[in-house]
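Researcher: Here's the sequence for the chain we discussed earlier.
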Amino acid sequence: MGFCGEYCLADHSCNIGNDMKNILENWQWIVAALTPIITFFTGYKFRKADLKKSEAEAQKGESDALQNMQSAYAVFTKQSSVEISRIHAELKDIKAENRDQRKLLIMLQEDNRKLHVEISKLTIENNSLKLQVGELIGENKALRERN
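Model: Thanks. This is the structure I predict for it:
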């Protein structure tokens, strides 16, 4: 085996040695040609990493926004619950006051009805007394005229 390796022909006509010589002589051009390709793929990986980082930040932002909304909703729910309880208590008090006022109104209406009945009786009695007074005045006048 020669310099070229086990696949080399006996006369070393495989040109592996020449290829290595060409590579070593032109390494600057090869590096210059491969650098943009390597940069492209490396940049792609960095862009992909940045994209993942941006997506993670966006998800964190969304998560923070969701947590803020949930805490705001919890505060709103608690405040609403307190306000609803207060309104229910106030409504209960108003209903109790309304029942008391209705009872009082019924009692006043009953008293008013009784007073109307009594006024009617007194009016009848007054008219009767007026008739009697008129009769007495007439009798008194007749007695005076006789005397």
